[in-house]
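Per your request, structure below.
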């Protein structure tokens, strides 16, 4: 029997509500497909700061490294905003990404047919959207040095550094090429090379790496234009390759095409160790504990974990099908309420999905 070790980081806000559903789904699938899955839950984010004074404690990072995959819900709460930056939940997330060398963040944006009317964009604009954002995750302005505050002047100043070396750009480009080769061989690299040196290096390096693959169709776009095009004609995109900050912004934007940010899963991968699988949305403190969150992004992240992290393809596909079935029966969570559906609580939605598996 195949045995897997999964580290579960439920984190903050709606995290525990949505991750409970993933546990149930994994239990059911392990019985159905005859594999054993050992889930170890660890403190991470604000809750870890409260218990252990560190949003990414060493014990948690060690457990993640020793696992086959990490399933993460979400971290953060406004109540931690006043903490020194290194103690904030978001810093814990960056520490985890960096400690596991998760340089490649994969964010698929796919329209689910039953949700065609749920997007704020018109149906005709979004109906053929199927794209993937490939975001560099452990470099760029998120991690660049130097950074900080200058307190020597009368004027307050703060700064960050947006920096990439060609190795960092090469390896994320290789990931985008691999994904593009499984799809329609189209990559759009997004940068701001009309203004930024770092983006010029990005553009030049992407061109160099992709030119080795003659079948690839590479285009380049400035990030401001890419934001506009994503709203104007999103189906022109297939693989979007971009840096850390631009990928952060564009993936939230792209999420709205699907109807709700509560629908978007992601995978963060390294070349060697376990990946982290997590919804793109945050911890939504405003609705935490109310049992109204949309668990689907978390459920789909669980599917990505099974597929990419554990190579349990059939089990992963079961989840996708179950989600589509539930949606096509007209069940929605509140974020997708269009006045013409049956609105379920978070746990009810979880039960419906589990029933379909
Ligand atoms: C994301 C999030 C994180 C990021 C935050 C929570 C640090 O917005 O995963 O997109 O900016 O990367
Ligand atoms: Mg983000």
């Amino acid at each position: 029997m195949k045995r897997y070790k999964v580290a579960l980081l439920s984190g903050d806000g709606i995290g525990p509500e949505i991750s409970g559903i993933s546990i149930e789904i994994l239990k059911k699938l392990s019985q159905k497909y005859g594999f054993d899955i050992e889930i170890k839950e660890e403190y991470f984010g604000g809750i870890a700061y409260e218990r252990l004074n560190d949003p990414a404690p060493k014990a948690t990072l060690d457990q993640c490294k020793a696992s086959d995959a990490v399933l993460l819900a979400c971290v953060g709460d406004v109540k931690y905003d006043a903490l020194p930056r290194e103690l904030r939940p978001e810093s814990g997330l960056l520490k985890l990404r960096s400690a596991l060398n998760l340089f490649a963040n994969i964010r698929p944006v796919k329209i689910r047919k039953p949700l065609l009317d749920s997007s704020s964009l018109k149906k005709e604009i979004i109906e053929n959207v199927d794209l993937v954002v490939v975001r560099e995750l452990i470099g760029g302005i998120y991690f660049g040095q130097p950074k900080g505050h200058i307190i020597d002047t009368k004027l307050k100043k703060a700064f960050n550094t947006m920096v990439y070396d060609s190795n960092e750009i090469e390896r994320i480009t290789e990931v985008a090429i691999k994904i593009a080769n499984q799809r329609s061989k189209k990559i759009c690299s997004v940068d701001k090379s009309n203004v930024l040196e770092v983006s010029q290096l990005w553009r030049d390096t992407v061109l160099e790496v992709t030119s080795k693959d003659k079948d690839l169709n590479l285009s380049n776009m400035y990030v401001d234009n890419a934001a506009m095009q994503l709203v104007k004609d999103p189906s022109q995109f297939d693989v979007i390759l971009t840096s850390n900050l631009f990928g952060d912004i564009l993936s939230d934007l792209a999420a709205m095409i699907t109807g709700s940010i509560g629908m978007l899963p992601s995978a963060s991968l390294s070349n060697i160790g376990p990946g982290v699988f997590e919804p793109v949305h945050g911890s939504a403190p405003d609705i935490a504990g109310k049992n109204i969150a949309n668990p689907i992004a978390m459920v789909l992240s669980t599917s990505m974990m099974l597929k990419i992290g554990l190579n349990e393809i059939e089990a992963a596909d079961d989840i996708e099908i179950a989600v589509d079935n539930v949606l096509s029966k007209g069940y929605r969570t509140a974020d997708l309420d269009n006045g013409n559906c049956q609105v379920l609580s978070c746990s009810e939605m979880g039960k419906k999905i589990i029933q379909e598996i």
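Residues 248, 252 surround magnesium ion (ligand 2) (CB under 6 Å).

Regards,
D.
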